[in-house]
Amino acid sequence: MKILVLMKQVANKDAILRINKDSTWIEEADLSFEVNESDGYALEEALRIKEKVGGEVVVVSMGPPRAKSVIKDALARGADRAIHVLGETTAHLSPFAAAGALAAAIRGEQADLVMTGLQSDDYGYAQTGVILAELLGLPHATIVIEVDASGAQLRVKRELESGWYQWYTMPTPALLTIQSGISQIRYATLKGIMAAKKKEIKEVAPAADVLNQPSHQRIEKIYLPQKSKQTQFLGAGDAKKGAAELAEKLRTEARVI
Amino acid sequence: MSILVFIEHKAGALNKTSLEAIAAAQKLGADTGAKPSAVVLGASSLATEIAAYDLEKVLNVEHAQLGDYTPDTYAAALEQVIRATGPQYVIMSHTYLARDFAPKVAARFGKGLIGDCIRMKVEGSKATFTRRIFLGKLDADVVSEGEPPTFVTFQSGAFRGDQAQKGSGAPVELTKVEVGEPRMKPEAPFQEARQAVDLSKADIIVAVGRGIKSKDNLALAEKLAEVLGGDLAASRPICDAEWLPIDRQIGSSGQTVAPKLYIAIGISGAIQHLVGMKNSQTIVAINKDPEAPIFDIADYGIVGDLFEAVPVLTEEIKKLKG
Q1: For A170, which of B184, B260, B261 is closest by C-beta distance?
Q2: Chain B contacts of A210, Cβ < 8 Å?
Q3: For residues A215 and A101, what is the distance between their CA atoms, to the nearest angstrom?
Q4: Which residues of B192-211 are buried (b: 16+ CB within 10 A; e: fewer)?
Q5: Same-domain check for residues B161 and B270
Q6: Of A12, A225, B141, B300, which residue is least crowded by CB atoms under 10 Å?
Q7: B187 is a domain residue
């Protein structure tokens, strides 16, 4: 089974975000980056499927040169080769355009399965996978937490809301978006890191017609969220003092103790 | 018709967030001078029920293939309804079901969704939609460009379902569509072993997140919950790591709660968590990151080391309860 895993590089979860001077995006200069969380689980699931049924895992990442670190890490964990859709501005494409660029880059691969995370931790569109399935003409399932690829058809368990689940059966080729936390992600071994150095990373340019198409949505500005509540901050940086004040407030002000 | 609102249901039973979508569509309609219409796929009796709301009309779309939800069948049906009616806006709630098929529909119109919005503002003919980015750390004002339709989904709670206006009975229009055999075959939805813990009735909840760092440290929160006479809960990463069972999980994929007191320890407050607890009466957040979104909804906040704050809080409360 040939599995393509789409992985995006995003700002580190714990990074302090600073807004750029045009208020259109964040200042990326001193930022640290990491792989989008749910994409990491998509890779892990792909590697497990390969271990069971054999085949090849190809990691695909779209982004500037720094996205190479995500690719190298995926190769070290066990992906067989990689495709880097190299573009400076691709991170800011609309989900439709991003899916278009990815479709153009991977169509020729004729994968049996395309997997990715359920949403990115930066823009959080949660759409690129579904739109990509549509552009490639593939059936899809989103928010998948279990995959059985051992039979003639794919059987996947989807998470619904409020503790409900549902199994779907579908033919391959297909596209799945994977929920975070569905397994324990393996670490890259030293052997894996050494082996990764010899693995192929193919660079491709994003399709020009996709980059040039008009966007259907535009960010006017970004800003810190307006607070819906006035928070009383206690302790002024002293956590212990804050805790003592809090106990008192919970009794006298909030009257919940 | 210029606004179409999608009504979601499970086996004919209304998904309550669809009332929020109606409220959103009515607000957008009032600001742009149009009365929204609603579309119901595969649930005739629900279409009649929805007609009680102040709508131009309700499109009752019936087809043998629309009994069970699949992305293929829903996308085919909604696409045809949109092509036939030509709305300027298609409004939906940002549910798991909408996430599963709405981008597919939008793609057929050469676009995506303006998804998971928390607010909107209309000035003249220009509508601005606000959505959270970076897991809730920042807000983005987004405008639609190009040809209609504009697809907008709203986060659960962005509008109030009880503010959806009733009307004098909207006409229900039976609508024909062509829907082929879906490629994916659904089995019946099910719940994992019945939830042992019902946190929705708890008065006090102490919830822990990633910041607790290890399973052994849960004892700290447990002790606090114990002196408060409350229940222990967690955000998703804690249950994923199996430090606590899944029936203790708060958020969109877990339980929704509204206790008198909610103490969030080491929880940054991703949207998926906030939707499960934001209606709590008093919210306390203890977190080392002053920018953590949890502070946006907290009444009391301590910025600092939870390992310092929690034991002191536990001791002080023990004293007060004496």
Answers
A1: B184
A2: none
A3: 13
A4: eeebebebeebebbbbbbbb
A5: no
A6: A12
A7: no
SS3 content of chain A, % helix, strand, coil (to 5): 30, 30, 40
Are residues B284 and B219 part of one domain?
yes
Q: Tell me what percent of chain B is helix, strand and coil, each rounded to the nearest 5.
A: 35, 30, 40
The pLDDT tens digits of the residues spanning B205-256 come to: 999 999 999 999 999 999 999 999 999 999 999 999 999 998 899 998 888 8
Q: What is the rounded CA–CA span in Å between residue B66 and residue A76?
A: 45
Q: Where are the domains of chain A?
A: 2-212, 226-257
Domain that residue B76 falls in = 3-175
CB < 8 Å to A172, chain B: none
- Write down the CATH number for the domain with range A2-212: 3.40.50.620
Kindly give the residue spans of alpha helices, DSSP state H, lying in B96-171.
Answer: 96-107
B317 plus B234 within the same structural domain? yes
**A16–B291 CB contact, under 8 Å:** yes
Using a 10 angstrom Cβ sphere, with 0-12 exposed, 13-18 middle and 19 or more buried, the burial of residue B60 is buried
Q: How far apart are CA A177 and CA A117, in angstroms?
A: 5
Which residue of chain B comes nearest to A141, CA vs CA? B100
Helix, strand, or coil here: B191?
Answer: strand
Q: Is A192 on the interface with B (CB under 8 A)?
A: no
| B34 to chain A, closest Cα gap in Å | 22
Domain-embedded: residue B189: no
User: Is residue B72 domain-shared with residue B205, that is, in the same domain?
Assistant: no
**Do B171 and B213 sit in the same domain of this protein?**
no
Q: pLDDT per residue over A130-149, tens digit each?
A: 999 999 999 999 999 999 99
* Residue B188 forms part of a structural domain: no
State ipTM.
0.91
The total number of structural domains in chain B stands at 2
- Residue-wise pLDDT for A164-191, tens only, equals 899 999 999 999 999 998 888 999 999 9
Asked if residue B186 is part of any domain, the answer here is no
Flag whether residue A65 sits within 8 Å of chain B, measured between CB atoms.
no
* HEC string for A32-55: CEEECHHHHHHHHHHHHHHHHHCC
Which chain B residue shows the shortest CA-CA distance from A23? Answer: B140
| Identity of the amino acid at B5 | V
